[in-house]
Amino acid sequence: MACARTLLLLAFASGCHWLLPLGPGSSHQDLTPSDALVDGTSTPDGPPDSAVPEDLAGDQPADAPRLDSGPPTCFTLLAAGTGTVQGWESSFDGPSPGSYPTDGWEMFWDGSTNNTEVVDTQWHSSPHSFRLESTPTWKRMDGKKIMAKQVTGELMCYEAWVLLEQQPAAYIGFVWHQGVAGTGEYAGILVTTPNTWRHVMYLVDLANDSCTRYIAGAPQKPSGCGGATARDSFTHFVVGTQGGNGHAYFDDVKLYWVE
User: Residue 106 gets which letter from DSSP?
Assistant: First the structure.
């Protein structure tokens, strides 16, 4: 199988999917809703209403050597419980510079078709990253299909490295749209500080609509993710940029969930 690897799980190439049966382990900490956010709504030219601005400690300049985010990771958080961890990673190192990512990536909001591609000019882990660019009035978001009803377990977790090269903001999280009027997001984060690689990591408790952000490996106070309507509506997990000629780079994007 093309994605077969040894148990050095986090060292495989982009595009791999897997199912890992897990034995008994320490159960995850139950999360309770706190400071719930309203159901997320958005338009193609503006930021999602319930996306959380990201203010991360331990950032590194864009030209600094790579620094590991340190434990825990999304995988280790979910693997500490029982069940089966399923997910994917995209490092964008397989496709050639100037091409579009493979392994299931697709456009969600069209934004700019210029310079939305795999590049070798910026990266967190060598040699490539994925660059996206918006127009003055239209956001650009790309991602993979995933719905909450496909996840039989309670937990999901995503993480990524994000470099915002030009404001207003980069976005990562779950989204849906039913025509321009019916759009929204769930468990999303906005990155607004430019020219710094930032590590974004969110643990999502679907059963309780509760999100826990991790900063430099430490869990923060749980908060609402966006409401039951948003949770039951999202169709994609995406990365992207807000309208306003923003552009950003994404690397080592990972999404996991428990079955």
Answer: E
User: Domain-by-domain residue ranges, the chain?
Assistant: 34-60+68-96+105-114+129-258
Closest CA to 157 of 200, 212, 221, 202: 202
Strand partners, 141: 109, 240
Please tell me what DSSP assigns to residue 150.
G
Cβ-Cβ contacts under 8 Å for 248 (sequence gap 6 or more): 131, 132, 162, 163, 164, 165, 166, 170, 191, 239, 240, 241
Average pLDDT along the chain, 259 residues, taken 10 residues at a time: 32 36 27 25 44 45 40 87 91 94 90 86 94 89 91 93 92 83 84 92 94 87 90 93 89 95
User: What does the alpha-carbon distance between residue 72 and residue 216 come to, in Å, rounded to a whole number?
Assistant: 9
Given the candidates 2.60.120, 1.10.246, 2.60.40, 2.120.10, the CATH classification of the domain at 34-60+68-96+105-114+129-258 is 2.60.120
